[in-house]
């Protein structure tokens, strides 16, 4: 069974609890056992699966509120019965009582205002920017060393040793939790960029060599042009001399004149 479907089954993970952590542990254990039974995930994946179930469960509960409760908040008759078979009647009644509580509504309005003021959400999870940059630089150095080795694959161990174990905790404020597969994908992109940079550097070197050859060819071409101009000038002078030969011949004395 898909995790998304499992999180929406009211019998397995009831929605009438304020927080996912308030759900009895035996129900969460049963949900994990069902996932484990239908997949090949190792026992170490339990915390990750439960964290995903928590996120999906929260989104599902929010969807119920936005779709079935808020549009009919002033209609007691509508709210008296569960609007969907996906939510059990007893659970729906508890949800309505909780959502209509004045204190809960004040908190919800305050949270909505605070969220609307936020424009740029950070994506670093629990790590502050300075520590993230430090670890990111360390990871880049690992990738740079790997790029010099043939048939060396980037693996999860390098990520864990550099960035630390992945943890799911409640964060202060609203942020997106970075997941290992997403960060590894981005780091693999960095690894590919390193290889592209090496190829680019090699291409630039080849371009420099080609440019030098072109410059030498251009110089030789200019010298050849000068030689051609000299040859053309000499040819012109030779033609002028040849054209003047009849005149010079007529100016020479004949044999009879020489004897006299």
From TrEMBL:
Keywords: Coiled coil. The keyword Coiled coil applies. Residues 193-244 form a coiled coil. This is Uncharacterized protein. It comes from Sesamum alatum. The lineage of its organism: Eukaryota, Viridiplantae, Streptophyta, Embryophyta, Tracheophyta.
